[in-house]
Write a structure and sequence with these properties.
With about 475 residues, the chain is of the alpha/beta class. The chain has three domains: about 100 residues, NAD(P)-binding Rossmann-like Domain (Rossmann fold, 3-Layer(aba) Sandwich), CATH 3.40.50.720; about 120 residues, Tetrapyrrole methylase, N-terminal domain (Cobalt-precorrin-4 Transmethylase, domain 1, 3-Layer(aba) Sandwich); about 120 residues, Tetrapyrrole methylase, C-terminal domain (Methyltransferase, Cobalt-precorrin-4 Transmethylase, Domain 2). It is built from 17 helices and 17 strands. The strands form four sheets. A five-stranded parallel beta sheet has the order 3-2-1-4-5, sandwiched between helices. Strands 10-9-11-8-12 form a five-stranded parallel beta sheet, sandwiched between helices. Helix 7 runs antiparallel to helix 8 and helix 11 crosses helix 12. The longest helix has 18 residues. The structure holds S-adenosyl-L-homocysteine (SAH). S-adenosyl-L-homocysteine binds next to helix 13 and strand 17.
């Protein structure tokens, strides 16, 4: 080990920065965040540093550095582009046993700065010992995605309960196990979304559970799994999928995404193919409530976003009625996913100032849509569940005043390796789709924005043929 990692308390301590440019500014911000009393020595300061130094508790000395300047400081940082000055600072600091950092010159440093992930009071620091700052940064980025944004809040929460838990759970192993479960489970998830009261209530229940043996009900998480590509999951969705005891999923959830769920979790298929409701909706609502009442952490995994044509509202209504705690984790809805991956922006300055999401699901073979409000100029229409009704939908739009030449596209299995995009217009699309033997799920996009695909298409999985707009 070439360096000893430590965390230094510099609040209200005198720290010296030599230099007044951009690099000095970065070090200034860092020291400032840690509460240091900063002195800057430099003949000139860049504008940003000038304005920040004016508003903070900062001393600015406008001249070149001299060796005696280091006296009385807890640390010195040299951030000039002048190697002679940098060396002077390093030598002077070393002579006085003051820790010194020279930016971008590890040979002159007695300490180096790590790349940090700041979730104060939790801080993760990464160093490559000065060998590759880029590598340190890449590692830091990975940590950023692994450590939830609310981790600092969680640390503070745990701190509040430390003594109580120590008293109530005297045995060290048992206490560690309790903390592990708590810091990974539903209590932590409540803290992350700032539902502190709920988190505290749950925490006390969990503590009581230890001594009484009484089961604490689980939480139900309605998780949006996005349109198909597993990379489009949110960090939050991914994390919650790891704490599931049971997952109730529907047909839109791709096998790749299901494969990312905690391996030990029980997986229940809830159907949702057209005309094949493996479990009817009321059954799903009840099932979620029953599993949670048994103390299970339940993940209800749904395609796209749970609140867009996902019946998410109905599912949580039942939970609400039964007093079961729940959370909703948004996902990328099919409209966003498919339009992005098809190169069809849903709005565009020249073509569409608004966009409507509608369901094309037929009730008793009929469409029930308010066409007057939907068929308006400069509006994009996105139709979910519109494959079966496509001929009727296109005919109805023409009947209500849309031009038969209005561009329209069908995106099949959007964002996946099997994505296909079929373009036409209101008159031609049904026929082209019929000939193309498409498979669900498919999304229909109607409006002049569809023309942009010719220029903006970027995702062509497996080089599959696509049908383009007629000239
Ligand atoms: N909650 C989901 C929508 C559920 S309704 C969401 O926010 O995306 C089911 C409809 O979504 C399908 O009929 C289809 O129109 C659309 N859909 C979902 N995933 C899709 C995908 N990968 N490609 C195309 N359409 C999709």
């Amino acid at each position: 080990m070439n360096y000893l990692p430590i965390f230094l308390k510099i609040k209200n301590r005198k720290c010296l920065i030599v230099g007044g440019g951009d690099i000095a500014l970065r070090k200034f911000s860092l020291l400032n965040r840690a509460g240091a009393k900063i002195t800057i020595i430099a003949p000139d300061l860049c504008n940003e540093l000038e304005s920040q130094a004016a508003t903070e508790q900062v001393t600015v000395i406008r001249r070149r550095f001299v060796a005696e300047d280091v006296n009385g400081y807890s640390m010195a940082i040299s951030a000039t582009s002048d190697r002679v000055v940098n060396r002077q600072v390093a030598d002077a600091a070393n002579d006085s046993n003051i820790p010194v950092n020279v930016v971008d010159d590890p040979d002159l440093c007695s300490f180096i700065f790590p790349a940090i992930v700041d979730r104060s009071p939790v801080i993760a620091a990464v160093s490559t010992g000065g060998t590759s700052p880029v590598l340190a940064r890449l590692l830091r980025e990975r940590l950023e995605s692994l450590i939830p944004a609310g981790y600092g809040k969680l640390a503070a929460f745990a701190d509040d309960f430390r003594e109580i838990v120590k008293q109530r759970v005297p045995e060290a192993d048992q206490r560690r196990y309790f903390w592990e479960k708590t810091l990974l489970g539903p209590v932590a998830e409540m803290v992350f979304v700032s539902r502190d009261r709920e988190a505290r209530r749950l925490f006390h229940q969990k503590l009581a559970e230890l001594s009484s043996g009484k089961t604490v009900p689980g939480t139900v998480y309605l998780v949006g799994a996005g349109p198909g590509d597993p990379d489009l999951l949110t960090f939050r969705a991914m994390r919650i999928m790891q704490l599931a005891d049971v997952v109730v999923y529907d047909r839109l959830v791709s096998p790749e995404i299901l494969g990312l769920v905690r391996r030990e979790a029980r997986k229940i298929y809830a159907g949702k193919k057209r005309n094949d409701h493996s479990i009817p909706q009321e059954g799903i609502n009840e099932l979620l409530a029953r599993l949670a009442a048994q103390g299970k952490q339940v993940v209800r995994l749904k395609g796209g976003d749970p609140f867009i044509f996902g019946r998410g509202g109905e599912e949580i209504e039942t939970l609400m009625e039964q007093g079961i705690s729940f959370q909703v984790i948004p996902g990328i809805t099919a409209a966003s996913g498919c339009s992005s991956y098809a190169g069809i922006p849903l709005t565009h300055r020249d073509h569409a100032q608004s966009c409507a999401f509608v369901t094309g699901h037929l009730k008793d073979g009929k469409i029930h849509l308010d066409w007057e409000r939907l068929i308006v100029p400069n509006q994009t229409l996105v139709i979910y569940m519109g494959l079966v009704g496509l001929p009727q939908l296109c005919a109805a739009m023409i009947e209500h005043g849309a031009s038969p030449r209005l561009p329209a596209a069908l995106v099949e299995r959007g964002t996946t390796e099997q994505q296909r995009v079929i373009c036409g217009d209101l008159e031609t699309l049904p026929q082209i789709v019929e000939e193309s033997k498409v498979k669900a799920p498919t999304l229909i996009i109607v409006g002049n924005v569809v023309k942009l695909r010719q220029k903006l298409s970027w995702f062509e999985p497996q080089e599959r043929a696509t049908t383009n707009l007629p000239e």
